[in-house]
Amino acid sequence: MSPANTVAAYAATDPTGPLTKTTIERRDVGPHDVRFDIHFAGICHSDIHTVRAEWGQPSYPVVPGHEIAGIVTEIGSDVTRFKVGDHVGVGCFVDSCRECKNCRAGLEQYCTGGGMTGTYNAVGRDGKPTYGGYSGSIVVDENYVLRIPEALGLDAAAPLLCAGITTYSPLRHWKVGPGTRLGVVGLGGLGHMAVKLGAAMGAEVTVLSQSLKKMEDGLRLGASHYYATADRATFRELRNSFDVILNTVSADLDLGRFLGMLDLDGVFVELGLPENPLVVPSFALLGMRRSITGSAIGGIPETQEMLDYCAEHHVAPEIEVIEPDYINEAYERVIASDVRYRFVIDTESLREA
Ligand code: NAP
Ligand code: ZN
Ligand code: ZN
User: Fold this and answer.
1) DSSP state of 149
2) 96 touches ligand 1 (CB under 6 Å)
3) pTM of the model
4) Which protein residue's CA is at the shortest distance from atom 23 of ligand 1?
5) For 9-50, how does the pLDDT look when each residue is reduced to its tens digit (9 = 90+)?
6) pLDDT, tens digit, 9 for 90 and up, residues 289-341
7) Is the Cβ atom of 182 under 6 angstroms away from ligand 1?
8) What gap in Å lies between CA 120 and CA 118, rounded to an integer?
9) Ligand with the closest atom to the CA of 49
10) How far apart are the CA of 156 and the centre of ligand 2, in A?
């Protein structure tokens, strides 16, 4: 086994303790694999849900991180799409069955042949656990690696691999554009990307945040309107006024009040993954023939399309770059909605170790 396979990483070993520094083993580079040095890894709220066992018991140790950006250092003998030195990224999955109709259509996140293989807390084809981006390097099959355009910095590109595609995909699917009245609930990692992308696509964007604390930011990011959901008057004033609402909130919401803000045939897209199920009041749903739906990340072709779109339209997340030893504090700040608007770990010290 190559010494390059032993890599420093930050891992959680139980639901309550801090993440601590450790080492993990990556596999040898196979014929179709790409090895790359990780330069930056974003912190997604899903990392926190996972390590804290809010979605069920994960398989510890968990090395989170599915917003990964870096530079190729080694390629397998049959790799055709990448070369050493390329800027690349990996998002929420590193494999899927490749044979079902969804995989063949480039919708790997909806794989029906056993499901996608998560970038962490899953088991790879080799039978070994997968470990994510809070680490110095990674080995991934080239079909699950994205190309990061030169115009995007690797630090700002990282959050696009989850927060970017998770908001881009539903905006495209529900044809958000000029004339669409779009509501974005929650101004965190996903929410701020929804505002930026929605505005870039020409929609009229309204932020629905808990308070008015981030109003200046929301308007600067591209929103036309900004309301506090702690104020009950907001729901009266905005009754029947959106075509699409993207909900990015990581906690439980009083769904009826939010549904009431949708106009006839309006669509409420659930993107957040709180611990508890949604409670759907029937009257709010059928009153205006409203729909509730959900959307999970995006497939490989659409993720590439999103990266190219962001490079072309100068859309990038607002980030706070941190050292790995700040991860635990960053988690507390994310939970307290004190993130502006994505923490990105500079993994340089993990590459040296
Ligand atoms: P985040 O940065 O923590 O943003 C969530 C935002 O929700 C916060 O900034 C806050 O916005 C709002 N919020 C938090 N607690 C709240 C509460 N108790 N009541 C009302 N609003 C609250 O998280 P994220 O990384 O964007 O992820 C958001 C959710 O999406 C998570 O559940 C994550 O697991 C999920 N997710 C889903 C997908 C997918 O494929 N669908 C992909 C990635 C993540 P304000 O302060 O502005 O109110
Ligand atoms: Zn994520
Ligand atoms: Zn499949």
Assistant:
1) P
2) no
3) 0.98
4) 45
5) 999 999 999 999 999 999 999 999 999 999 999 999 999 999
6) 999 999 999 999 999 999 999 999 999 999 999 999 999 999 999 999 999 99
7) no
8) 5
9) 1
10) 15
